[in-house]
Amino acid sequence: EDPSLERHFKGHRDAVTSVDFSLNKKQLASGSMDSCLMIWSMRPQMRAYRFVGHKDAVMCVQFSPSGHLVASGSRDKTVRLWVPSVKGESTVFKAHTGTVRSVHFSSDGQSLLTASDDKTVKVWTVHRQKFLFSLSQHINWVRCARFSPDGRLIVSASDDKTVKLWDKTSRECIHSFCEHGGFVNHVDFHPSGTCIAAAGTDNTVKVWDVRMNRLLQHYQGNAVVNSLSFHPSGNYLVTASNDSTLKILDLLEGRLLYTLHGHQGPATCVAFSRAGDLFASGGSDEQVMVWKTNFDAADYGDVLKTQKSGTSVDGTHHTLQSEMDSGVHLKKTKTQDAGRNHAQQEEETSLANTLEHIMGQLDVLTQTVSILEQRLTLTEDKLKECLENQQKIIQNKMS
Fold it and tell me: Name one GO biological process term (predicted).
């Protein structure tokens, strides 16, 4: 069955720049050139929230792994962290000296990665938004930066036509991929962490192995590719292009599976949900669309299981051949699973859920504290101003 349009959100007043699903798929965030962040509810008849705060275009949005925070970066050079609730409160910090093009949370939710037109990539703590360090070897705007799934590597894409791979601990650039013929708009890690995909203004999508630093796949399109997203199984890649299409690539076969027409004008951004059953897209037409993936669910249910048991993806030039194909691996995983005690499994799941919930609550608390601190600072500043004014009035009277 082909992917199908599921929902259609209208509310932005200018081009949509970025979309992201929350962990539980109940919410979808989008950023736009209209300076607003919208949070859409995936449940029918639930209203959308419009968050106002940025003074200029919102270039990027992302939910924290727990789903309790949303980060946004803007042309106003600031980053905001929002609590996605009715109040839509946020903390703000000046992150860069140029437009912030990209925000990304590490998978543990502790760090935030930002990339900017000031040619740098920066890492911050989420709690208190403390600046940690800068990566500054790009010689032009940095459009996108992502942590690897294990948080050890960082990848960045720039208008200097390079994709750079960094070691987070040593803060060194390990490798520069220079094969793009144009600016690199978007880059991301494969869920396994072993390869990256990059989209460019030279109409290509390229997939590299980050262990051998070699090109695995090269897809040539006929329009600028603005954005891409890996399916959680790692078997598919969806792209958004200037010719208004979304394309789904089958990475195992190394071929184009579907071309979807929905947007009028350039498709600017695209993202799979964390479970992979949905993907969202945004366009210059101010619309946000949600699509049902409709791939054979059995196909990637198995694959996701295999991935979790530590499959590595290793490839020849044209196909991302993987251990999953051998079938042996799948069978092995299944019997192990069946042998596990069901109660024990349930216990672990509920424990994991509880922990996740606590982490989320912590995020919100920290955020609330930050918001209160900001208000205090504002109040203190106002008070200082009042006192200074009083002094002036007294001095004027005296003289």
Answer: multicellular organismal-level homeostasis
Statement to judge: residues 184 and 61 lie in one domain: yes
Q: Quick one: which of 12, 55, 96 has its CA closest to 287?
A: 12
Q: Do the beta carbons of residue 310 and residue 323 sit within 8 Å? A: no
Beta-bridge partner residues of 273: none
User: What six digits make up the tokens of 260?
Assistant: 């979807």
- d(Cα 261, Cα 284) in Å, to the nearest integer? 14
Pairwise CA distance, residues 120 & 216, whole Å: 28
Tell me whether residue 237 is in a domain.
yes
Q: Is residue 95 one of the residues assigned to a domain? A: yes
For 44-68, the DSSP string reads: TTPPPEEEE--SS-EEEEEE-TTSS
Helix (H), strand (E), coil (C) string for 106-169:
CCCCCEEEEEECCCCEEEEECHHHCEEEEECCCCCCEEEEEECCCCCEEEEEECCCCEEEEECC
pLDDT value for 191: 96
Written as six digits, the tokens of 137 are 């070897």
The residue ranking higher by pLDDT, 380 or 31, is 31
DSSP 83: -
Question: What range defines the domain where residue 390 resides?
Answer: 346-398
Of 292, 245, 243, which Cα lies nearest the Cα of 2? 292
Residues 167-202: pLDDT tens digits? 999 999 999 998 778 899 999 999 999 999 999 999
pTM of the predicted structure, to 2 decimals: 0.78
Polymer length in residues for the chain? 399
User: 359 versus 395: which is more confidently predicted?
Assistant: 395
